[in-house]
Write a structure and sequence with these properties.
single chain; about 0% strand
């Protein structure tokens, strides 16, 4: 009888087994072998472990490959009452227009931040064991802000009032950050942690929204099958409470499952950094070719400012990862290029709005746009400089993170100025 030939699978198995045994004293080669095919490596290692378990390296790899990760953790039982109460209160705030007969557009244009943030503010005050001064400051600031924004004149067509409405959530976001860091404005690391928390929160909230949409579609579809139309009831009641639950649920999931969620944002940023870089180059070329005015309409302005903020978010979530591995230099170059191309776009925006200020005079909208873009421009200059130093090996990732974190209170001050002063300075026009 002829001996059975080894299959390709058996051959790969034996090659990896031989590589593991031969390289137990060569950490770099062993790591390289693992990275070529992690699944196969683990399977071969586990079947071979009995033969090599006396070797210290084998025992270390056994723990690395077979360590039982903490299970996905929903919520601590002691916090279930607070979670339920938070959802109840947030949902009730969202239903105020229905309870009080207030126009929904008027209410949500001014109060969307005050619907989403109160229970998150309470949560971080509670978790940080905030002192009386911090609690009083937060409470007074939120009450004053809510009272002010709701007593502004009704027409949202006014530029100054519109600007106040869109800057108020930014101010609340900064106040939330103040409580997240425990009121310690000098702690840069906590500010960075807050920015990272926001990235993880957005990812988790997006997953919850997608899950909710799928569940809602299935639920409505099932009742349709038996002839019971529930779309209207579902949209007016259950959807409101579901959306109200997302901020607090996402916060808990992020806080209690860091081993899972805090790896997602850097991966997303790493994937999209080169894509966004190429897109911005194409966009800049198209902008020059078409001669499109950067500030021809308000929607374009909002989208453009969102782009600038998004670029800094990409840099924040990518820079630490890019300095951790040998291929990080390429990623760092992409980040540096991304910051430089965004600076060019920002210069174009600043020149356009400066021209409009001199040509058409001062207005709330033009001044707000110019101020915001000037702050972002300065922030990006510092970020690009630090990235250049990192590429040259003269600085580390912490320097870039610190620069981004340093500007959070400054953005908060600007948001407060636009929200509180602009309507008065421009006489609600």
């Amino acid at each position: 009888m002829k001996a059975n030939k080894a299959t390709p699978t058996d051959a790969a198995f034996n090659i990896v087994k031989f590589g593991i045994i031969e390289n137990l004293d060569q950490p770099k080669q062993l790591e390289s072998l693992y990275r070529k095919n992690k699944i196969l490596f683990q399977r071969v290692f586990n079947s071979t472990y009995a033969e090599i378990k006396e070797h210290a390296t084998a025992r270390i790899w056994n723990e690395r490959l077979n360590y039982e990760q903490d299970a996905f953790y929903l919520f601590p039982k002691k916090d279930l009452f607070y979670i339920f109460l938070s959802i109840l209160i947030t949902g009730s705030l969202a239903k105020i227009p229905v309870f009080a007969g207030i126009n929904e557009d008027f209410f949500f244009s001014r109060n969307i931040g005050f619907v989403a943030s109160p229970m998150l503010l309470v949560y971080f005050l509670w978790k940080q064991s905030a002192g009386v001064k911090q609690i009083m400051f937060t409470t007074i600031a939120v009450i004053l802000a809510a009272t002010y924004i709701n007593f502004l004149p009704a027409p949202l067509q006014s530029d100054s009032i519109f600007l106040a409405c869109i800057h108020m959530p930014i101010l609340l976001w900064v106040i939330l950050g103040y409580n997240f860091i425990g009121g310690d404005l000098n702690d840069q690391q906590k500010k960075i942690d807050y920015l990272r928390f926001n990235g993880d929160l957005l990812v988790m909230a997006a997953l919850l929204v997608i899950s909710g949409v799928i569940f809602s579609g299935l639920t409505v579809g099932l009742f349709e099958l038996i002839g019971i139309p529930i779309q209207k009831f579902y949209a007016e009641h259950l959807v409101v409470w579901g959306l109200s639950a997302i901020p607090i649920l996402a916060t808990y999931l992020v806080q209690y499952n860091p081993q899972i969620v805090n790896k997602i944002s850097p991966v997303i940023a790493k994937i999209f950094t080169p894509i966004v870089f190429v897109t911005l180059i194409i966009f800049l070329s198209a902008l020059i070719y078409t001669g499109k005015s950067l500030y021809s309409d308000r929607n374009f302005l909002l989208l453009f400012n969102g782009l600038l903020i998004g670029v800094m978010a990409l840099i924040l979530f990518s820079v630490s990862e890019a300095t951790k591995n040998t291929t990080g230099k390429i990623n760092l170059l992409f980040l540096l290029g991304l910051s430089l191309i965004t600076i060019v776009l920002n210069v174009l925006a600043l020149s356009a709005i400066a021209f409009r200020l001199t040509e058409f005079g001062l207005s709330a909208n033009r001044l707000a746009v110019f101020g915001a873009n000037l702050l972002i421009f300065i922030n990006l200059l510092f970020v690009a400089h630090k990235l250049y130093l990192i590429v040259k090996g003269k600085a580390d990732a912490q320097k870039v993170e610190n620069v981004i974190a340093f500007f959070i209170p400054i953005y908060g001050i600007w948001a407060a100025a636009v929200a509180f002063l602009f309507p008065l300075l421009f006489q609600f026009k």
